Amino acid sequence: MEYQFREIEKKWQQKWIADGVYKVSNTSARPKYYVLDMFPYPSGAGLHVGHPLGYIASDIFSRFKRLKGFNVLHPMGYDSFGLPAEQYAIEHGIPPAVSTDQNILNFRSQLDKIGFCYDWDREIRTSDADYYKWTQWIFLQLFGSWYNRKNNKAESIKDLEQIFNESGNQDHICPGDRNLRFSAADWQAFDEKARQDILMQYRLAFCGYGEVNWCEALGTVLANDEVINGVSERGGFPVVKKKLRQWYLRITEYADRLLSGLQTVEFSDSMKDMQTNWIGKSYGAEVDFDIQSPENYAGDKKVLKVYTTRPDTLFGVDFLVVAPEHELVPMLIANPEQDKAEAYLQYVNSRSERERMAEKKITGVFTGSYCLHPFTGDKIPVWISEYVLAGYGTGAIMAVPCGDERDHKFAEHFNIPITNIIGTHYNGTEANPTKDAVLENSHFLNGLVMRDAMEVALQKLESTGHGKRQVNYKMRDAAFSRQRYWGEPFPIYWKNGIAYTLPIEELPVVLPPMEDLRPGPEGEGPLGNLPDWKNYQDGIREVNTMPGYAGSSWYFLRYMDPKNKETFCSREASDYWGQVDVYIGGTEHAVGHLLYSRMWTKVLFDLGYLGHEEPYRRLVNQGKIGGDSRLAYRVRGTNRFVSAGLKEGYETDELHIDVSLVNGVELDTEAFKKWKPDFHDADFILEEGKYRCGTRLEKMSKRYFNVVNPDEIVEKYGADTFRMYEMFLGPVEQDKPWDTKGIEGVHRFLKKLWRLFVHEEKGLVITKDEPTDAEWKALYRTIRKVEEDTERFSFNTVVSQFMIGVNELSDLKCHKVAILEKLIIALSPYAPHICEEIWQMTGHEGTILDQPFPEVVSKYLVETAKAYPVAINGKTRTEMTISLDASQSDVEALVLSDAIVQKWLEGKAPKKIIYVKNKMINVVI
RNA sequence: GCCCUGGUGGUGGAAUUGGUAGACACGCAGGACUUAAAAUCCUGUGAUCAGCAAUGGUCGUGCGGGUUCAAGUCCCGCCCGGGGCACCA
Fold first, then answer.
1. What is the pLDDT of residue A296?
2. What SS3 state is found at A200?
3. How far is Cα of residue A50 from the mean position of the Cα atoms in its chain?
4. Which of A106, A148, A630, A664 is 20 to 30 A from A658, alpha carbon to alpha carbon?
């Protein structure tokens, strides 16, 4: 009887569902374990072989933990709001709700074929009203809270009103406007609008004005990646920046806790680095430079505040640079530079922030104005340049060319004289960002080492009132509204310019069905086109929707209690399941999703809805599987294709060929001719009778014809083979190319395993004989490695070890059930179908899923001797088997008596013999 | 530009803490079984030099230096690929 994987897999997938073996209970005597995948956006393209990589890893881990005696929560759902569905609706007239449902059906059928152990009763979809009701509810909590810096936690905005009523805001600096000051009497005198405007500046979810990419021709706001070189990706229309009212989350209030929380979780160091850098905490100073009034200057602000992290370089300032968006720019621009400056501003307005940051070309313009140095009184020119970003610090910098590379290039490019304050540390051609130089030309800082001068400068700035210490974060408050349709509506309506919340009884605010998703008037999203919906009592509804990360910021909580009608997740459920023990997903979510969900968790914790404030205890990043494209070379202007090895002799155009038409690199020329009508008459210049394609590793994408669908692989080799092969490809964390060819090896392994139990003609061949020590050793060595490596997510080496184990047992002709049944329990997380089938065939009742993971009996693994590599001067020359309890002198005597060692010694005495027990021996001559 | 990450045979990769580089597979070559094929099994397979062979020498983990008895692994400087950079998710 052969290994008939199709029958086996279908049979068990049906039986497992019928028996409800994957149902998870919130009450159990077993300890809990929560394994979570980053849930997918259900795109129309379906799954390719890259997607399930992380899902397979987490599935194996979940099954492993179950064998280890845990009550394992392993849910799946869909992040089903998002821009592509909306775009698809605009292009094809199919409503997002419809296409999303179709896509989810497709995803589900693809996932089911792979044999995952998800508890589908807990499935969630972020676009379900039952789900986003609670997303809206959490938004209301954010809206109804402020961050009390004294207590370091979110508190109710009602408490803040009470505080204002009693003592004004003197104890609680306004995060939205730190210059805002009012007394209790002021507060009591304010009208409703004024009070609400102030409260808005404290709320964790608040409204403000922010710049967006505005495309007049399309009448809509564009995402950064929809803008290319200042024009829209669709249609190529000009895109400019425009200020629109936006919702934000005050994540900056959590910056410090997001930083310190990193020390309590197991994320990779690189992941922690990325988050740390994103938060970008820096210590520095704000320095006030008085503006020397230009002729046309009429405003009342006379000070330009700059932010610097290097107050020690205060006397190396040669010019100041302000961001083009800086509020003082219109006042700073002075004749005769006015025209040039305005032309420059127009140019900058056409560029995205990313383009500006990536720009290597130096651009800028002199404003015509000067500031006065706070200590020397020198006149310092003020420039405008796009390399200074308005959102960071004060939007203005003091440029110190001798110490900062960008400032240096700027000074050189515009011929601005450079002051040297670090003596020989500056070579005149390149900035030196050292902190160890002794300062010169630096007034009261002369003679100090820069590192120490910082504190001196800070004190002086503060004591003279020219500046102050300032901690800054690169992180900005998170924009939380989108001018789009396919997202959660806000439970907010506006009246007299005041935002009011809808009563909780009215949640969910259901997204009204729409056919035509054209943008609304004046930069509004499509909901702006629905006057009936928009009107709410005597006000109007908020017509923005929430961004993609709203639903994904708390979904891990809903899985714990997915059907709860009373609350987003009961304290009982969240206290039982607690943190996600292992969270698996791609690094592309390193900063966005992970930081937002960490913040939401902290807010819910502060408000008492959760007992823990870090959502994920351990994070594992899975790599991407790249496509392995195949290329053909068409001789220019002909329909003739030249094989890759001969293409140098021709002028060719390169074309992507569907990978299914190619075996290895050899093109099936007949299939190619049938692929597209254009190629029907193609002819070929062959090498050695074959057409060889070029190859290239790149993103797996329809456009490159390199997409491999898991369904096809499962159909051809089975889910167990597919699961193991995905793991065998390499470390989960690493990016790697997909090459279907190697899958044969894994498939052969499963067939070989099968033959340990079943002979093709004789049927079952297992025996009840007592195993030998060699058999126990082969088994336990495998089990130990499987256990260790599974625990540390090294699944590729586990698959290798299973191959080694099965190879050894096959060589030993071992058909003993005592050995083999332990082996298949250990293998069942990796290849559940074949193991369950064998489990049943060998006479067991019930499922293999709940067996205990076999315990290693270490007496079979004890070694008494080791084959040591013996090196001469670090190069291995021979091998000697020596008892493990040998002493240094035993080893020296043995080694020196060895013929090969003697040959290399050439009669001389060795300088030293290094003996590292259980590792190696090195003879130094 | 900034941040992160990777680079080891023809290919995917292994080497967990500085200690036998290339485990395990794929591919390839040769052989067994078969009328034949498939399947299966066996042998070999980093490069290079010497040798009929057993075997032995040299080189070898992107490049150039360094530390060490010993470096794929640690340090310094470079080159190349991939991801992220706030409205793709």
1. 52
2. helix
3. 16
4. A106
Axis-axis angle for helices A817-827, A743-757 (nearest 10): 150
**Whole-number Å distance between alpha carbons of A154 and A72:** 32
DSSP state of A178: T
Q: Establish whether the CB of A135 is closer than 7 Å to any nucleic acid atom in strand B.
A: no
Q: For residues A554 and A604, give the distance between their C-alpha atoms in angstroms, rounded to a whole number.
A: 10
DSSP A279-306: HTEEEEEEEEEEEEPPTT---S--EEEE
Euclidean distance between CA atoms A654 and A72, whole angstroms = 50
Interior/surface letters A213-250, b for 16+ CB within 10 angstroms, e for the rest: bbbeebebbbeeebbeebbbeeeeeebebeebebbbbb
- Tens digit of pLDDT for each residue in A504-516? 999 899 999 998 8
* Interior angle at CA A351, CA A346 and CA A354, nearest 5: 150
Q: End-to-end alpha-carbon separation of chain A, Å?
A: 62
What is the pTM (predicted TM-score) of this model? 0.90
Tell if A472 CB is < 7 Å from nucleic strand B.
no
Is the distance between the Cβ of A734 and the closest atom of strand B smaller than 7 Å? yes
In this structure, what DSSP letter does residue A527 have? G
Give distance CA A810 / C1' B42 (Å). 14
* Chain segment A265-286, per-residue pLDDT in tens: 998 888 888 888 888 888 889 9
The three-point CA angle A833-A835-A838 to 5° equals 110
* Residue A899 approaches strand B within 7 Å at CB: no
A588 touches strand B (CB under 7 A): yes
The answer to whether A213 CB sits below 7 Å from nucleic acid chain B is yes
CA distance A417 to A485: 54
Per-position DSSP letters for A832-885, written without gaps between them: HHHHHHHHHHTT--S-GGGSPPPPP-GGGG--SEEEEEEEETTEEEEEEEEETT
Angle between helices A83-92 and A96-112 (to 10 degrees): 120
Mean pLDDT score, A66-88: 93
A294 within 8 A of A314, measured Cβ to Cβ? no
Cα dihedral A578, A579, A585, A591 in deg (nearest 10): 130
Mean pLDDT (chain A, rounded): 89
What stretch of H or E contains A274? helix A269-279
Question: At A72, which helix (H) or strand (E)?
Answer: strand A71-73
Residue A573 makes CB contacts below 8 A (sequence gap 6+) with A26, A560, A561, A564
Angle at A28 between CA A25 and CA A29, to 5 degrees: 165
DSSP string, A699-747: ---GGGT----HHHHHHHH-HHHHHHHHHHTS-TTS-EE--GGGHHHHH
The answer to whether the C-beta of A791 is closer than 7 A to strand B is no
* Residues in Cβ contact with A14 at an 8 Å cutoff, skipping those fewer than 6 apart: none
- Our CA angle for A76, A82, A88, nearest 5°, is 115
pLDDT digits (tens, 9 = 90+) for A730-741: 999 888 888 888
Helix (H) / strand (E) element for A912: namely strand A912-916
Nucleotides of B under 7 A from a protein CB: 1-6, 11-16, 19-21, 23-27, 39-42, 57-58, 69-71, 81-89
Report which of residues A309 and A832 the model is more confident about. A832
CB A255 within 8 A of CB A279: yes
Beta strand residue intervals within A163-280, DSSP E: 205-215, 220-222, 227-228, 231-232, 240-249
Angstrom distance, A110 CA to B33 C1': 40
| Two structure tokens written together for A863 | 């070694």
Specify burial of residue A454 (Cβ count, 10 A radius: 0-12, 13-18, 19+): buried
- Tell me how far the alpha carbon of residue A782 is from its chain's centroid: 34
| ipTM over cut 0.90 | yes
Nearest CA-CA partner of A40 in A793, A795, A618, A588: A588
Spell out which residues of A between 271 and 290 contact strand B, using CB within 7 Å: 273-274, 277-278, 280
Pairwise CA distance, residues A453 & A434, whole Å? 13
